[in-house]
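Fumarylacetoacetase (Paramecium tetraurelia), 430 aa
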Amino acid sequence: MQQEIQAFLLVPKDSDFTIKNIPFGVASKADGLPFPATIIGDSVINLAKLEELGYFNGPLFSTLGSKVFDNGNLNKFVSLSRPYWKEVRSQIQSLFSTGSQLENNKEVLAQVITPVQDTKNHLPITIGEYTDFYSSKNHAFNMGSIIRGPDNAMQPNWYHLPVGYHGRRSSIVVDGTDIRRPWGQVKAPTAEKPSFTKCKRLDYELEIGAVIGGAPNNLGEPIRVNQAEDRVFGFVILNDWSARDVQVWEYVPLGPFGAKNFASTISPWIVTIEALEPFRIQLPEQDPEPFVYLKEKNHTSFDINLEVLIGTEKTPELEHFTTSNFKYMYWSVNQQIAHHSVTGCNIQPGDLFGSGTISGTTKDGRGCLMEYTWNGKEPLVLKSGEQRLFLEDGDVLEMRGFAGEGENRVGFGRCKGKILPALDENYFQQ
């Protein structure tokens, strides 16, 4: 049961940002520098200003001896530990609940609050490293069925370890950033040789990103699976854009490269484990039993509803067509962390782990267009009559995620991007 608190700030009906949430991000005013922030309803709250005014005065935070929110990112805060994160979140809830010392303090409220429409979001952290996993069984089976047939859909290693690869952090962008269609080498199944061309099979991937926090483990010392959650600061929605035709040609033998490195989009607000705790759920038993380093005392995820919407140049109004859920995970985030570090890899605060595409059990729960259209054989038909096999120029793709409802709703906001045309081929002329 969540603590019964009410915000004195206006919170619209079905807002993602109730006082039960308190996510963390970075925002700026039109004429100012980025600042660490949280949001309640439509009010963006300046954490740097609250810290400057002395409102973070709990027993832990008050002993730090230096400012934490004085940079244009959350990295200092993320590098602390869960007791500090919980203390700050609890103090924010107390400050902005009915009957608090700030409720009628117009002078302070004017300094710390900006209407959301007057702000711009930025990447919440300076991302260190990015790793993407492949941990939804439904997605793995569907993709394997498309590529190898249902009898050979699952690779032999899949049930034994969380499959993953290292991605590119420099091209991770925040919600609202336009995405340019990439170029690359492709080879059609019947072609004798590859060609250099614009990507014709541009896709999205519906994922959750785990933001790593806390002190780094020492090189050579793995993180134990039952302590791994202490390293999770919170979660974002993640769209790992994919160039499917480029990927098919390039991925042998080392895995994805250019097909995955041109852009990934995240939602701007990091939602904490504390906010999601009421929505924790048990995951199905794993078979075969995981090795000891992956065996959790509690194999859990969170009941986070995930949605995908699309708008086109012809019909800009967004249309919902996919519903999935973070409960459709086989390997948990804790297991991903344990496997990533089992070799002794030192995982750093500010790293980002992608869950891998999260697919449900029905067609409208498939987490990417390659699945949804079964590799271009079953078109997505929109209400306007338009059809999509893969994304076209001018398409707008938006992801949303939330848990709970009403006053207990905890959401992520949006994760949105518009597809821009590829550069003209003359760009590559020497």
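The chain has ten helices and 26 strands. The first strand starts at residue 25 and ends at 29. ok done for today
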